[in-house]
TrEMBL record, chain A:
Boundaries of every ABC transporter domain copy: 4-234
Transport among keywords: yes
Subcellular location(s) per record: Cell inner membrane
The keyword Cell membrane is annotated on this UniProt entry: yes
Protein's membrane topology: Peripheral membrane protein
InterPro entries in the record: AAA+_ATPase, ABC_transporter-like_ATP-bd, ABC_transporter-like_CS, ABC_transpr_MalK/UgpC-like, Mo/tungstate-bd_C_term_dom, NA-bd_OB-fold, P-loop_NTPase, Transp-assoc_OB_typ2
Annotated organism of origin: Microvirga brassicacearum
Major site of localization recorded for this protein: membrane
Pfam families assigned: ABC_tran (PF00005), TOBE_2 (PF08402)
UniProt GO MF annotations: ABC-type transporter activity; ATP binding; ATP hydrolysis activity
Name of the protein: ABC transporter ATP-binding protein
GO CC list: ATP-binding cassette (ABC) transporter complex, substrate-binding subunit-containing
UniProt keyword list: ATP-binding, Cell membrane, Membrane, Nucleotide-binding, Translocase, Transport
Automatic annotation (TrEMBL), chain B:
Recorded topology in the membrane: Multi-pass membrane protein
Native organism: Microvirga brassicacearum
Source taxon at top rank: Bacteria
Keyword NAD attributed: no
One cellular-component annotation, GO: plasma membrane
Protein name from the UniProt record: Carbohydrate ABC transporter permease
Subcellular location: Cell membrane
Protein keywords: Cell membrane, Membrane, Transmembrane, Transmembrane helix, Transport
Length: 349, 286
């Protein structure tokens, strides 16, 4: 088992800076998700940890050992690829055994470890088949089994579920979490799917434009986003941002007044859709409802506050109709204050 | 053709792949003509090769095979020098295969996996070697080969044949390696392979059918090549060069037998690698 230290890693492709001095620590046994839109550098970072790309500067330290200059095979890690990369000319058994054979493990040991890994991923019944005969979900199970068979100190996963259909993704996600918890492997998991990151990770590093915007537990990142980007990227619907003007330590929004954390004229309030609730008519913040979408578990209201687009989630039983003006109450402690100029969240006193 | 023009101009109904019957007729007629163009001469050569002296001179000719036998073919092979030339041809073609795969596959791999400055120019230059007329090179080559002791050896011939086969070997293997996802190799590296081991354990097994096709391609190029082989040898002729010399003064049914032996490998080869040829030319194959 090992911890991972990524120290000011820079990667440039020609004149394009894919990674701008990224630093990240993953504790031993921790599951860290790298989450971000495509092109944010998350896969590049993972490939640098794996040794498949070479960083322009910075270090990668795994288990106290600087592996920055080592080839992938000497880094003591395993990887699961987005397109499975299960070798088509080998049976499932040989695929799972591949890493063990490269380590010159004895035949009995190979059998035992392949058997255990296959049992974890429920692929024992097709060990002697060729990958061409397997479905996408089965292939990805093989790829995970192959990675776990070598009992790696570090496991890297590059969007392992993104090629699967939604139902299978949910099933395999739950299973992955259980399997990895049991194995106690330090895992770096790249994904652009926030539900995957939220559901699986101990901590999420949200990446954008070659930088880590924020790193924290799923709840921290969700409830107290560090930047406007993080708030807008996480959550469905994304966080609402409402421009307000602060004067004399107070901000007016609708017809209520909120205490302002800092004195700045340009502030934005980050409001999660579920953090507002309907208030008795005539009180609270005025919200003009334009569209009402019943989603089953809740109603999604799209409208505006002070002319700014806002989405609010209310219980399915609420009586709201399009075109109405309703009042909203918000819990000031659950609001995120963002400096309109820098896009960074203001730390509350 | 009695297909009216208006019928042809009618847009094809959007019913999947079925063409209107007039067009289909045209298509199949065209195909039949093309096939006949290629296959009928080969068929008659085969008929002459196995029909013996009588078969060749019988008139009117029968288009159906009658009294075929292997005897004329065996007689042909028994002609003095034919067997030796056959061995020379095999040595030359074998060396050409080894050299063009050994040199062409790494070049194809490099073109497929790495980007380097001048890549496209390189790709073009590889093909341009075919544009250089061998006739201009003939005399200097002969002189150099005599100096180096390569003159009149099958190996010397195979060197020139390798030059001819290499462009195809490079381009075929390039498309071959491009078809093998890089992720397979990366997975192999992560799971403990050096670059070379990953190539041996993962890329090579997957590339083998295509490499075999490349090998056969080189074989046939060498087998059929006659100009360089005629110039660079005197006694140790390859079969093609030898036949060119002796067939002009041989009886007709020997010529057919010789012709047939020359045609056979090419036909078998093209059939075997058609899929990869289409891939090189950018035509999707089913």
């Amino acid at each position: 088992m090992a911890d991972i230290v990524i120290d000011r890693v820079v990667k440039e492709f020609g004149s394009f800076r894919a990674l701008k001095e990224v630093s990240l620590n993953a504790r031993d046994g921790e599951f860290v998700a790298l989450l971000g839109p495509s092109g944010c550098g998350k896969t590049t970072l993972l490939r640098i940890i794996a040794g498949l790309e070479t960083q322009n500067s910075g270090r990668v330290v795994i288990g106290g050992r600087d592996v920055s200059e080592l080839p992938p095979r000497k880094r003591g890690l395993a990887m699961v690829f987005q397109n499975y990369a299960v070798f088509p000319h080998m049976t499932v058994f040989e695929n799972v055994a591949f890493g063990l054979r490269m380590q010159k493990t004895s035949e009995a040991e190979v059998k035992r470890k392949v058997g255990r890994s296959a049992a974890l991923l429920h692929i024992e019944s097709y060990l002697d088949r060729y990958p061409a005969k397997l479905s996408g979900g089965q292939r990805q199970r093989v790829a995970v089994a192959r990675a776990l068979a070598v009992e790696p100190a570090v496991l890297l996963m590059d969007e392992p579920l993104s090629n699967l259909d939604a139902l299978l993704r949910l099933e395999l996600r739950t299973e992955l979490k259980a399997v990895l918890r049991e194995a106690g492997t330090t895992t770096i998991y790249v994904t652009h799917d926030q539900t995957e990151a939220m559901g699986l990770a101990d901590r999420i590093a949200v990446m954008y434009g070659g930088k880590i915007e924020q790193i924290g537990t799923p709840l921290e990142v969700y409830a107290t986003p560090g930047t406007r980007f993080v708030g807008g990227f996480l959550g469905s619907p994304p966080m609402n941002f409402i421009r307000v003007a602060c004067s004399e330590g107070a901000a007016r929004i609708g017809n209520i007044t909120l205490p302002c954390p800092v004195a700045s004229s340009e502030m934005e309030i980050g409001l999660r859709a579920e953090d507002a609730s309907l208030a008795p008519i005539g009180s609270g913040i005025g919200f003009d409802v334009r569209v009402v979408e019943p989603m089953g578990s809740h109603l999604l209201l799209t409208g505006s506050i002070d002319g700014q687009l806002t989405r609010i989630v209310v219980p399915p039983t609420a009586k709201v109709a399009a075109g109405e003006r309703v009042g909203l109450t918000v819990d000031p402690s659950r609001l995120t204050w963002i400096d309109g100029a820098t896009g960074r969240a203001v730390v509350r006193a | 053709m009695t297909v009216s023009a208006s019928e042809l101009r009618e847009p094809a109904p959007s019913r999947g792949l079925t063409l209107p019957s007039a067009r289909r007729l045209l298509l199949w007629t065209g195909l039949a003509v093309l096939l006949a163009w290629v296959l009928v001469p080969i068929y008659f050569v085969a008929l002459g090769a196995f029909g013996g002296r009588l078969g060749v001179f019988r008139w009117p000719k029968s288009i159906w095979p009658t009294d075929l036998s292997l005897a004329p073919m065996l007689q042909f092979l028994a002609i003095e020098g034919v067997f030796n030339a056959l061995i020379n041809s095999l040595i030359a073609a074998g060396s050409t295969v080894l050299l063009s795969v050994a040199l062409g596959a790494p070049a194809g791999y490099a073109l497929a996996r790495y980007t380097f400055p001048g890549q496209n120019v390189y790709r073009l230059l590889v093909l341009l070697t075919r544009a250089f007329p061998l006739a201009i090179l003939a005399l200097p080559l002969t002189v150099s080969f005599i100096r180096m002791g390569l003159y009149d050896t099958p190996f010397g011939v195979s060197l020139i044949h390798t030059v001819l086969a290499l462009p195809f070997a490079v381009l075929v293997t390039q498309s071959l390696f491009m078809g093998i996802p890089r992720e397979y190799e990366e997975a192999a590296w992560v799971f403990g392979c050096t670059r070379f081991q990953a190539f041996l354990k993962v890329v090579l097994p997957l590339a083998l059918p295509g490499l075999a096709a490349t090998a056969i391609f080189a074989f046939v190029i060498s087998w059929n090549e006659v100009f360089a082989a005629s110039i660079l040898t005197v006694r140790e002729r390859t079969l093609t060069a030898y036949l060119l010399k002796i067939l002009s003064e041989s009886p007709l049914h020997y010529r057919f037998a010789g012709g047939f032996i020359l045609i056979l490998p090419s036909v078998l080869f093209i059939f075997a690698i058609r899929k990869y040829l289409f891939a090189v030319w950018g035509i999707a194959s089913k």
